[in-house]
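Exercise 4. Each item below gives a protein and its sequence. For each, produce the structure-token representation.

Item: Ubiquitin-like modifier-activating enzyme ATG7 (Setaria digitata).
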Amino acid sequence: MVGRTENGSEADEQSAESESCVYYIKWVDVEGVDYAVVMQNENGPCPLLAVINVLLLRGQITLPCGSTQVSQKKLLQFVADCILRLKPKDIDDAELPNYEQNVSDVLTLIPSLPKGLDVNIHFTGVKKFEYTPACALFDILNIPLVHGWIIDQGDQELLKIMDGLSYNRIVEKIVTTNNESENCLLRNFLDSSASQLTTQGIAELLSNLNEGEIAVLFRNNHFQTLAKQKDALYVLVTDMGFLGESAVVWETLDCVDGNSTFVDAVFSVSNKPEIVANENTEQVHFMLVGLYSLTLFFNLQTSSQLFFEKMKVWLIWQQSPHCRHEIGLYSEEYDVQDEVPRGRALSLSTQAVRPHKNYNRTSKGLKVHVLQFPSYSLDLITEHKRTMLVKDPGTSSTRLSISYDAFLVKSEWHRNVVPVSGSVLAVNTHETFRNLDRKQILYSVAEKVKQCIESLEWLERPSLLNTFYLTVYPDLKKYTFRYWNCIPALLYPQAVRMLSNPTQISAELATSIQMFKALHHNEAFLLVGTTPAPLSSIVSNNFAWSSDIHIVYPDPSTLTAFPGWPLRNLLAAVAYVRKDLRNAKFICYRSGGVPSIIIHLSWETASDLSTAAVGWERIKGSLTPAFINLRGSLDPLKLMEFSAELNLRLIRWRLVPNINLQRLMNLKCLILGAGTLGCNVARSLLAWGVKNFTFVDDARISYSNVVRQSLFSFDDAANGGKFKALTAAEGLRKINPLISAEGICMKIPMPGHSVPQQEEKEVEKTVRHLENLVKQHDVTFLLLDSREARWLPTLMTTFHHKLAISVALGFDCFVVIRHGVSDDEVDEGSEQSQNDPNIVPGSQLGCYFCSDVTAPGNSSLDRTMDQQCTVSRAGISSAASGAAVELLAAVVQHPKMGGSPARLGENDESTTVLGATPHQIRSFLSRFTQASF
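Answer:
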């Protein structure tokens, strides 16, 4: 099973790659000591990253304090040095040749560490792997290599089958052997533990690792740094999206379903950033997606109100070229010139919204959701921080990018980020987008800049001078997006020109500025000779302007001959507050390998500051919006997830604003019987967003099943037929690969069906297994062929207070019944039911067998073939399945869910947001009538 291993023929290519590939460094404070954590690049959580971070946390290697990047070549050299340095002192002469051979083998593996290693696990121990040179690497470095894909020790049958077999051998066994019962067990285990982590595995990791020990966890073809602290397991967070989050260092590893909690460097729960939103907002998500893309969506899920006001978001200049959760907006170069009578006019490199081609489309921030009805405007918080990558690797153009966490309130920004305040307007129709009053928009944003200058607020926070107004029309069914960005620049002062050609600053000055910028919180500041001073000094009565004064500001331009667009408003502000000045020197401070420049400007000052401005982005010189189509660029799985959820969210936004979709999506459904009813029920549940299914059936697919059972095809019935349960689960996963669907081959014990003595233990095991399944699921559908097959599951669901829904078919009729859910903690009858005799509490509802006067027996004994087959009208199974699923949907909307009451006589449609919650539904197709009670 594994990560791939690069071969020797690719050594030259790997060497060249290691020279240019870099990793970003996150510094974390552990009780006053700074530790470096190397973050992911495009290779993800690779073996190199896991090994390096273990060595760093152990203190076996160190990085220069304060460094922000490290090359891949340097990291590989660290590993090689450690391998050569860690030779055991007490090794015997007889063992030395073998050790040296292992070292030689391991050294040949080092170039492949950024890509992957061949690792093949055994399922009977967290430290059991098939021995390979990759294992020798971890042995020599004395780093425990562990996994958490372990068989439950109570499953003796599976342990016996898998004893001594590695993952690769098990896959080979499934493919090459014809032992269906064993293969069924093996497939079930692999499918049910597809996350490659089991509860047994977590328990064994805790018992095998020592307190404070650091290891490498192998899971899902990835290698992660794992630590045991305070009797808990933690995985090191190396995702680039958390580079600037000092409070997010580790992530808990305590369950198999992916739920986790972020903690800081000392393993205290991290305070997640607050989401700023209207009080009626449930959740806000921001997204820019696509390869060659900029897209902007918001998951603004409201209850009854349809309008949002004053939501916060940040638009960021980001200097990290490998930020996983960002889309870059790069600029095309064009000049904005004032009319000048003489000299050289000032031209500026602008920031335009463009797709950034290096966006990683596998970003886990790929969530697309939409505001319900109205167009909406989002205001952006004004925070500012410095250094920024101003260079797009492919085009050398400046980038203006929106980060994945744009809605989050952050007390501080990463030192490589300059936040820029602004607004986003998203509209719902193309016509609205075309008819926007763009002159008024430009005037309004220019007015804000003007007020900021006149109020002198910019002297304390110069970043307020930089703003934008992004207008977007997303067509979320076609995945096309039209957008047009406005970055306002005041046409003040007049006749701006350069008095001399720009010159590059010296290395000494660059070093000084690098230190000074931190003192001024990455804002613009003054440099008087070699002494820094705040911008507010400009208006001080004791401040005399001289030729050695420079105004230093963070500049996004990559051009040596032109400053960036932000200089425009900074110049306007300086000219406004110092009307005595006619010229000044600016230092356009840059980073990311782009030379900083000094530019000397002169101007003519008008008496009044006006809102005259330019700023709407040009596309190839013309004022027109941009258009992108993302359908071919997005991850198909994410498209599937979004599209499926969109239909459900439209129900809430347009028709049922109070529906609780999360209750439906979180349901765990046990479907007993994977035949006609089972397939149809599963398909309908899938449409409601349910993501967790377990099918139980022991039958095989026959050719007569295929036309009626919607999850099967002709090929499934060939060669004796596949197992229905396994094939139904596989069919659901083909429809929606993002769900969890498991098939279990099980014959349910039935009253009236005798059991041979030699099979009694097997039946007892089956009963325990079935009981565990009932306990693990929220609702059980009884869709089995015979009446007696439903008896034991009914008994179990009643005993464990679980909701059960039974569906039975006749030739032209059906019945759907929900079983009563009793709960010792719930009173026998609510106040409402006590006041209204027609209301029956959910705890008093009967089950499928409540009106029986005799125990169920063997109903299939001595039946002829025509009596054994389910004979019914073709459409009745779909109608019955739909009624059962819709009954469940209504029941889970009730506060008591399975305990929701039923009503005698006419049903009350206002019981839940989806209507009534009857006890039974009976339909008769011969009369096309339906009754519920």
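Check: The two ends are 55 Å apart (CA to CA).
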